[in-house]
Amino acid sequence: MKINIRYFGPAREAVGIEIEEMIVSTGISVAGLRELLLEQHPHFSTLAGASRFAVNMDYALDSDIIPEGAEVAVIPPVAGG
Hints:
Elements: E1 2-7, H1 9-15, E2 19-23, H2 30-40, H3 45-48, E3 52-55, E4 58-59, E5 71-75
Parallel strand pairs: 1-5
Antiparallel strand pairs: 1-2, 3-4, 3-5
């Protein structure tokens, strides 16, 4: 199935693109997508664990299933502390 991934801030810098269209397995979870992104974008590894994912503009849990045609936002931490 096809999804769109939008990277923000340092995540965008790490992967080198702002928006990516990706074909993934039907029924993939947020955790599964995180692993797939780590395989395809090794520079994302320093941010992967701390980044939040939003699916269709709602924050998602790692166990959430991503629906076909979804827009997934990768939101890295924006402030220290």
